């Protein structure tokens, strides 16, 4: 590369090949998300054991699940803003170590209310992982493969959710339900310490903060070894720092409508996703399905999500976010609507797989879209706020789902009603076509800001 006194950080990352340094970052982030997904889903497999040991009914046990969801909502909003203020790296490390300790402590509870309190506190840490991690991965990914990489890394969450069931089959009969929390607490501590040693900060974030400690030069040359940087080199970011509270910036510079549509899509999709994940096995079990087949329904749903995340990431890189995701959610909506009308197990499992592919896999696409839609200084806040609003959908959806189940609706009628949020998700994504644009057939990017000016970081001594 020709010697120059100015290096554009965004252009350097976009033009780089994904090398060992970036692969290491992505692998570490994926490992963190595997444990995040594991910890979020623990309650689903230990509920029967806790209910028997503590003598609880289903409503009491639901307090712990709801407390965890509220904690994740708080954490998504809180830690995302902290990530935009203090950096992705410190917030990710603190959130990981924090939820690890709280999860470990949960294994020692002996009654309902300490369990509820610890699930809420642990949820706060868990909620801070996804927004900052997706932002960091996107900021180290070349533009041509950013959508695929961010969604591939997010698949760690789905894998972790699947691993809970397989782990529980062996661990709970041999060691009891508390061991699940011990595993979910100890292993993330190891990942958190590895992040402390190996995880870098976002290059764009450092440039916007005018960092002068040499980290920019060190990490940028790891991304692209051909870059020549001297003490006189000025590193340039594409954006300028934004004043004010990060959350208010989500509605400025023409982003108000786009933010509202992203919130709507997340609210409706997570409402549907959690209905399928938490209630679908019960719906079919009450309709006469065996317990084993009901468990396989849940596993098939998550398996579809794992594959869907990867395939949709590839499709987004070819056709853009809006077309790919609007189509995916539309197909997912149809799959849910006809799910209760299948005449055979083979057809049912195929439809469940398609629903998981589109609904569960599509959620990773929504997170990746938010990471591309918002500029660096509000990226974590943008992702976190969308996920936080989505968690509101989950919380609101729980009593609605319970009420519908209590009315004795047939599976066909219940699942037809459940498909309605998918319609709104698809429409919200389609409406976003005027707010994002595709560049070079790749990921949808935000509309350019006319007054945006580059931020610089001098390396001079």
Task: Tell me what you see in this structure.
It is globular, with a radius of gyration of 22 Å. A 3-stranded mixed β-sheet has the order 1-2-5. A two-stranded antiparallel sheet has the order 3-4. The chain is mostly helical and 461 residues long. The chain has helices spanning 9-15, 20-54, 58-86, 88-106, 112-127, 129-139, 146-175, 178-198, 203-208, 215-223, 246-249, 256-286, 291-319, 321-339, 345-373, 379-406, 411-418, 420-431; strands at residues 6-8, 234-237, 436-438, 444-446, 455-458. The chain has 2 domains: 9-238, MFS general substrate transporter like domains (Growth Hormone, Chain: A), CATH 1.20.1250; 244-447, Growth Hormone, Chain: A (Up-down Bundle), CATH 1.20.1250.20.
Strand-and-helix sequence, N→C?
A: EHHHHHHHHHHEHHHHHHHHEEE
The gyration radius over C-alpha positions equals 22 Å
Classified by CATH, the class of the largest domain is Mainly Alpha
Q: Proportion of β residues?
A: under 5%
CATH topology name of the largest domain, in short, is Growth Hormone, Chain: A
* Tally of alpha and pi helices: 18
Give a short overview:
The protein has about 450 residues and is mainly alpha-helical.
Spell out the key features of this protein:
461 residues; mainly alpha; Growth Hormone, Chain: A; three-stranded mixed beta sheet; two-stranded antiparallel sheet; 18 helices
